[in-house]
Design brief:
By secondary structure, the chain is α/β, with parallel strands linked by helices. The protein is built from 13 helices and 17 strands. Helix 3 links the parallel strand 3 and strand 4 (83-87). The chain is elongated.
Length: 484
């Protein structure tokens, strides 16, 4: 026997006959799940309907009315509480009126004792269906609440359209975006609503038509807005289909990206100003430097300590100009990835940064995938860094790693405490260093998706390891193969 309260069936027997007590007892004997309460009339029966009753069994002989009167009174309170007629009245008229009034089932008494099992079965069936409906309604309410929570996202504009583009519903966030009443926009063509300026209405109509044909449409647009404030959104129009694949509605959703667009415009303005600085540095500043250097060459006659210092200062200014131009051009890096012979690139870069005849030791035959110009900047900065700190007699070695390459030297090295800071802009251990070169190296490495670390070399100097590098001969795998 189950004692679970959810398994119990609470029955109200409304019957004015003398055998109502026997019927109640017989129902409880027939099914141990039944708890039967007896009411002798309409008024007493309604008083016992406290929300826990699962089914009403109504007879036709009630002192204050008929079973139909009780049924109508119950239906005013509940449209689907099961009500089973158990009555001697068997006319077609009574049955028709009961059905019209919303009776759940109708059973003639006949020989009461023989009909109790049938009545019990009818009650069980009616209650199971009633509970199933209640469970479905509860799940539907939960689902509706979940959908409503998604629909009323305070960060997202949401609308529901018919396949023909008619607006059916918009959430509060969307309505706050414009100055209009929701009810006045329902049933209006979406492209004609106040969300859209005149110059976009044709585009919106095309987006809706594409979505209605089954396409997932993405868009970015400037929306019309109260007071003509600039508002930019990024959104989608996606089709909703039924089980046959037919589009039955469209969901429009959008996010306000106005602030992001403002930041992008501000960034573009700053970049424009930076490019103007680069233009001035490249042309207007370098020209007087070249003039000064030319006059200095003429003025120098023999050894002159002061003119030597001027020459050194001009060389440093030229180096600073080069580093500044490299920094301002970083947004243009990695424009074209191609196969680059690493050994040849190292040898070319060494000639650009060194006046010594001693070449670097190059232990690689790889062709790596890189932006050729930016790889040149990277190598020139690493080789120049070795010369700047190790002097003209420094020995530089370039070799392979399992998934990249390294540049090492036998110079003074970098203290362990400073190794994390060497790639910061402005950091330098040399008295005449710009503190820009290794920052440029880090930017180029990041743009390629590589990784760079600095350690000590076996000769006591610095060793820069660049990993995550693709080889042209092994494009199907992420790394190069080689021996360190």
């Amino acid at each position: 026997m189950s004692d679970s309260r959810s398994d119990r069936i609470r029955v109200l027997l409304a019957d004015g006959t003398d055998d109502s007590g026997e019927i109640a007892a017989a129902l409880e004997r027939d099914t141990d799940r039944f708890d039967v309460t007896v009411a002798s009339g309409i008024e007493s029966g309604l008083a016992r309907l406290d929300g826990t009753t699962d089914c009403v069994v109504a007879g036709d002989a009630l002192p204050d009315g008929t079973g139909l009167d009780l049924l109508r009174a119950i239906r005013e309170q509940s449209s689907d509480l099961p009500v089973v007629f158990f009555t001697d009245a068997g006319s077609e008229r009574v049955a028709s009126e009961a059905i019209s009034a919303g009776v759940t089932d109708y059973l003639r008494r006949g020989d009461g004792a023989e009909r109790i099992p049938v009545l019990a079965d009818r009650v069980r069936t009616a209650v199971e269906e009633y509970r199933d409906r209640a469970a479905r309604r509860a799940e539907l309410r939960r689902s509706d609440r979940r959908l409503e929570a998604v629909f009323e996202d305070p960060k997202m504009l949401v609308g529901i359209l018919s396949p023909d583009g008619t607006l059916r519903k918009a959430n509060r966030t969307a309505m706050e975006f414009i100055e209009a009443d929701h009810d006045t926009l329902v049933d209006e063509p979406f492209h004609e609503t106040p969300w859209w300026p005149d110059d976009l209405r044709s585009d919106v109509r095309q987006w809706v038509d594409r979505a209605a044909a089954g396409e997932y449409v993405e868009y970015e647009a400037d929306h019309g807005h109260v007071d003509d404030d600039y508002r930019c959104v990024s959104g989608t129009i996606r089709p909703v289909t039924d089980e046959t694949g037919e589009v039955v509605s469209l969901i429009v959703s959008a996010w306000d990206i106005t602030e992001r667009r403002r930041h992008e415009r501000e960034l573009r303005r700053r970049n424009d100003r930076l490019n103007e600085v680069a233009r001035i540095v490249s042309h207007d500043l370098r020209s007087p430097l070249n003039v000064a250097d030319g006059h200095l060459s003429i003025a120098r006659d023999g050894e002159n300590e002061h003119l030597a210092e001027v020459s050194h200062a001009l060389d440093r200014m030229e180096e600073l100009v080069g580093d500044l131009l490299t920094l301002t051009q970083q947004e243009e890096r990695v424009s074209e990835i191609e196969g680059v012979d690493l050994a040849s690139a190292v040898e070319d870069c060494w000639r650009n940064v060194s006046t010594t005849e001693t070449p670097p030791r190059v232990h690689t035959e790889r062709t790596i995938r890189a932006d050729r110009d930016q790889l040149r900047h990277l190598l020139e900065n690493l080789l120049g860094n070795a010369l700047r700190h190790g002097g003209s007699d420094v020995t530089v070695t370039v070799g392979d790693l399992d998934d990249g390459f390294y540049v090492a030297d036998d110079g003074p090295g970098i203290p362990d405490a400073d190794r994390e800071a060497v790639f910061d802009s402005g950091y330098s251990t040399a008295a005449d260093g710009t503190g820009v070169g290794l920052s440029i190296v880090q930017s180029i490495v990041d743009a390629h998706g590589w990784t760079i670390t600095v350690t000590g070399s076996t000769a006591g100097g610095s060793r820069f390891e660049i990993t995550g590098v693709d080889c042209e001969s092994r494009q199907s795998t992420p790394n190069c193969s080689g021996v360190s």
